[in-house]
Design goal:
Order of helices and strands: EHEHEHEHEH
Enzyme class: transferase
Strand order of the largest sheet: 2-1-4-3-5
CATH class: Alpha Beta
Shape: globular
Helix content: 40-55%
CATH topology: Alpha/beta knot
Number of strands: 5
Strand content: 15-25%
GO molecular function: rRNA (pseudouridine-N3-)-methyltransferase activity
CATH architecture: 3-Layer(aba) Sandwich
Family: Belongs to the RNA methyltransferase RlmH family.
Largest sheet: 5 strands, parallel
CATH superfamily: SPOUT methyltransferase, trefoil knot domain
Main location: cytoplasm
Radius of gyration: 15 Å
Structural class: alpha/beta
Catalytic activity: pseudouridine(1915) in 23S rRNA + S-adenosyl-L-methionine = N(3)-methylpseudouridine(1915) in 23S rRNA + S-adenosyl-L-homocysteine + H(+)
Length: 157
């Protein structure tokens, strides 16, 4: 099984890129994690945000293979503790499918992307910058994988 983070947005600031690379490296022997950056839709004065979101959605869907288990990050999704996420990761592994985590654009995901998602995951009630979400997601997936491997990274509880 391999995982992919499909994220709307390009050119992460160096601190995000470096942090993501660090967790990607740590995860490499448990769960290879790739990053696919999706070009944002055009926004601004005189532009239709719904059209931009729809354009992003089409590019996100094109980046997914048919058999991939899709987890959309969405504020209306299910929240997980770190222990819950480890159980979800074990469940996803047992399915024998590749896994894709999706981060939408400024207005969130297009309806067709949410319809394609197998699950929706919320990081909680806070509004976070989407670039920071990349880093939080990578760290939490690493934490879940470490828990499943009985690695001492996660010492809470």
């Amino acid at each position: 099984m391999k995982a992919t983070l499909v994220a709307v947005g390009e050119r992460a600031p160096p601190w995000v890129a470096e942090g993501f690379a660090e967790y990607r490296k740590r995860l490499s022997h448990w769960l290879p994690l790739d990053l696919v950056e999706i070009e944002p839709g055009l926004r601004g004065k005189g532009r239709d945000a719904a059209r931009a979101t729809s354009d992003e959605g089409g590019r996100v869907l094109a980046a997914l293979s048919r058999d991939t288990c899709v987890v959309a990050l969405d504020g209306r999704g299910r929240m997980h503790s770190s222990e819950d996420l480890a159980r979800r990761l074990e469940h996803w592994r047992m399915q024998g499918r590749d896994l894709a985590f999706l981060i939408g654009g400024p207005e969130g995901h297009a309806p067709e992307v949410l319809a394609r998602a197998d699950e929706r995951w919320s990081l909680g009630p806070l509004t976070l910058p989407h670039m920071l979400v990349r880093l939080v997601l990578a760290e939490q997936v690493y934490r879940a994988a470490a828990m499943l491997a009985n690695h001492p990274y996660h010492r809470a509880g």
